[in-house]
Amino acid sequence: MKLRNRHLLLLWMLVCSGTTEAIEPISTSIAVGVAAALTGFLATHQNIFCYIRECCRPEWISFNRTGLQTDLENKLFGQHIASRIILKAVNGFMSNDNPKKPLVLSLHGWTGTGKNFVSKLIAENIYKEGMDSSFVHVFTSTLHFPHSSQNATYKSQLQQWIKGNVSNCERSMFIFDEMDKMHPGLIDSIKPYLDYYDKLDGVSYRKSMFIFLSNAGGESIIETALNFWIAGRDREEIELKDLEKALSLSVFNNDKSGFFHTSLIDKHLVDFFVPFLPLEQKHVEQCVMAEMKARELEPDRDVAEKVAGDLHYFPKSDRAFSTKGCKAIQSKLDYYL
Ligand SMILES: Nc1ncnc2c1ncn2[C@@H]1O[C@H](COP(=O)(O)OP(=O)(O)OP(=O)(O)O)[C@@H](O)[C@H]1O
Ligand SMILES: *[C@@H]1O[C@H](CO)[C@@H](O)[C@H](O)[C@H]1NC(C)=O
Ligand SMILES: *[C@@H]1O[C@H](CO)[C@@H](O)[C@H](O)[C@H]1NC(C)=O
Ligand SMILES: *[C@@H]1O[C@H](CO)[C@@H](O)[C@H](O)[C@H]1NC(C)=O
Ligand SMILES: [Mg+2]
Questions:
Q1: Distance between CA atoms of 205 and 169, rounded to whole angstroms?
Q2: Is the beta carbon of 208 within 6 A of some atom in ligand 1?
Q3: What's the domain count of the chain?
Q4: What phi-psi label fits residue 249: left (phi over 0), alpha (psi between -120 and 50 degrees) or beta?
Q5: pLDDT tens-digit profile of 95-148?
Q6: Ligand 3 pocket by C-beta < 6 Å: which residues?
Q7: Ligand 4: which residue has its CA nearest to atom 3?
Q8: Where does the record place the Torsin-1A C-terminal domain (predicted)?
Q9: Most buried in the list 57, 174, 177, 333, measured by CB within 10 Å?
Q10: Strand, coil or helix: what is 108?
Q11: 276, 306, 322 — which closes off a domain?
């Protein structure tokens, strides 16, 4: 087969070059050499293609554990529990060559506390192209699936997308934003992909990752955080077990939460529930400082304090937690500069 290719190539070269010189013995051997090189080139054209364009290969997809760890330590503020769970979960999953099921994380917490931000950090430490990778897919309920009357259409569309994308690349990542606003039927439709199946219709989903983002349970997390605050206890003393019960109760028993209607939870398809704590003023200040650095401005603590101090906090008397977390600091910063 290889030899035939080589002959075909030689013929092609002769035709293309339009010379008869190559017929002479010496030229012929040179031509054969060139042709051999070309054959090699064609055989590795896939490699060259993947050199310039993203492919589903380790050059483009490989987990950087230290990268994720340093990012979580240096860039994510005030989320000691989430940070710990995520590092363990992602590290365990990515270093397992034969996972039994896809990794399913469910991130919960008040607005502006870093759920999308963490998803981005995870993507950046797995995919060279980060969130721009063609293997990272973000679905936002209100954007992609806005009309509940069309749930049947969405359902088949979403299943096709997941199947098509995982067939292309088993290391695919799916982020479902505003999961609490997603139609329960639609959540049910992705359930098979999250389960312990070797293969479904010949496709294995076991190496893909699903991340659900929602505000579900946010209030109960706040309640716990506030109790610690009022008792004068250190935020870092809050442990997962302090939040777990309240979180699962509120996620289960909330009629407004899509999770309630599904068996995602009782079938244990979610591997980790990750709580995000409400942010204090000092964390908002850190966010402002980071934003100044990102804009290549000289970080200025006075400005950071002013920006953070200007936001709303609750409860009004204590000003414990930021109402919008670290959201909306960008425009505030513009105002102060
Ligand atoms: N804990 C945090 N550490 C560092 N930066 C943060 C944190 N939380 C939020 N930010 C900053 O604020 C921006 C908005 O946060 P993000 O979009 O992650 O919030 P969210 O939790 O997804 O909120 P929502 O529930 O409203 O979608 C981020 O892009 C990031 O710059
Ligand atoms: C992993 O991340 C660290 C810290 O960000 C970085 O220094 C290192 O170069 C990265 N490694 C790879 C292989 O990209
Ligand atoms: C779509 O939603 C309606 C009501 O909201 C429900 O009766 C129907 O079963 C759903 N269809 C699918 C395919 O989930
Ligand atoms: C992959 O998902 C995207 C949505 O993120 C969709 O547009 C695309 O058609 C899917 N690809 C395949 C092959 O199904
Ligand atoms: Mg978000």
A1: 10
A2: no
A3: 3
A4: alpha
A5: 999 999 999 999 999 999 999 999 999 999 999 999 999 999 999 999 999 998
A6: 148, 151-152, 155, 185
A7: 161
A8: 279-336
A9: 174
A10: strand
A11: 276
